[in-house]
Amino acid sequence: MELDTPWQDAPSPLRSGWRERVANLDGECVFSVDYRVCSQCRLAWVEEPYTVPEYQGCGLASAGLTALRDEYGDVSWHTLGGHLRDAKAFWIAVGSGVPGGYQKHELCPHVDPG
Q1: Per-residue pLDDT tens for 15-36?
Q2: Which residue, of 48, 81, 86, 98, has the fewest CB within 10 Å?
């Protein structure tokens, strides 16, 4: 599988002040995740990763989260929580060895909840 372009970022359509990381394949969005980074607190959050069913299990989500971590360097990665029961294994797998481990963490005072 080869993506049309490298990872793309745009303002999140769901959360004010957040960004959305997207991967496109053949003109179709196949992966997206909302994220927010606070450079002051060195904290980051990701929310609502989504991979179209046809490509689930192909490593797109893992690759997208890795690209974000590589881009933002030394920050601790979290989520706001509320994961679906079926997603727990995913978060454990992608959080292994990651500062913060994508564990639940409230937003810092510098970040608008959107």
Answers
A1: 999 999 999 888 888 999 999 9
A2: 86
82 Rama class: left (phi>0) / alpha (psi -120 to 50) / beta = left
| 51 neighbors 31 (Cβ within 8 angstroms) | yes
**Rounded-to-integer distance, Cα 78 and Cα 46, Å:** 6
Amino acid at 40: Q
Return d(Cα 98, Cα 86) in angstroms, integer: 21
**Token pair of 46, please?**
């990701």
Q: In 1-114, where does DSSP find H-type helix?
A: 60-72, 88-95
Give just the sign of the alpha carbon dihedral 50, 21, 76, 107: negative
> Is pLDDT of 37 > 90?
yes
Nearest-angstrom CA–CA distance, 47 and 82: 10
Name residue 78's beta-bridge partners: 45, 103
Mean per-residue pLDDT of the chain: 89
